[in-house]
Amino acid sequence: MRYTISYVSTVSPDLSETDIADLMSYVKQHNNFLDITGILIYSDGNFLQVLEGEKETVKILFERIKKDPRHYNIIKMLDKEIKDNAFSKYHSSFTVISGHYSHTELQQFLKKEENYNPEHFKSISYLTQKFMKLL
Ligand SMILES: Cc1cc2nc3c(=O)[nH]c(=O)nc-3n(C[C@H](O)[C@H](O)[C@H](O)COP(=O)(O)O)c2cc1C
């Protein structure tokens, strides 16, 4: 059974654009290594992240992320099992997007979620589009 945790948070004021870009590239690379799929969006001083993967891996990772001083006000929105889909991890890599110029990446991510995790798709689609102020 795969597992998902999703949250929003506020970026620390002393983080520069370069720090954020560095974080995004680290997260993408490390999550692909950990077999974690999902998305990290940075927009208007806030993060929204969806982590999907093996339950223990997701839970341990979230505990580490919560302690990271680069963000605060962490509000968890989803914490639940998702239907195991043997295909999902082979068809997606972790997505990172920043700002308002990333609609294409978001649409591609949502398309994959719709195909491989149709039940999970509804809540993810709502949360991410609301966060990006598209709804
Ligand atoms: C908003 C935010 C999201 C993060 N997401 C991830 C993530 O998905 N995967 C990851 O490995 N690290 C993520 N990190 C970084 C971790 O908090 C941590 O710095 C990193 O895993 C290295 O941990 P270590 O220094 O204990 O080895 C994130 C950090 C922030 C601020």
UniProtKB/TrEMBL annotation:
<dbReference type="InterPro" id="IPR036046">
    <property type="entry name" value="Acylphosphatase-like_dom_sf"/>
</dbReference>
<feature type="domain" description="BLUF">
    <location>
        <begin position="2"/>
        <end position="93"/>
    </location>
</feature>
<protein>
    <submittedName>
        <fullName>BLUF domain-containing protein</fullName>
    </submittedName>
</protein>
<dbReference type="Pfam" id="PF04940">
    <property type="entry name" value="BLUF"/>
</dbReference>
<dbReference type="InterPro" id="IPR007024">
    <property type="entry name" value="BLUF_domain"/>
</dbReference>
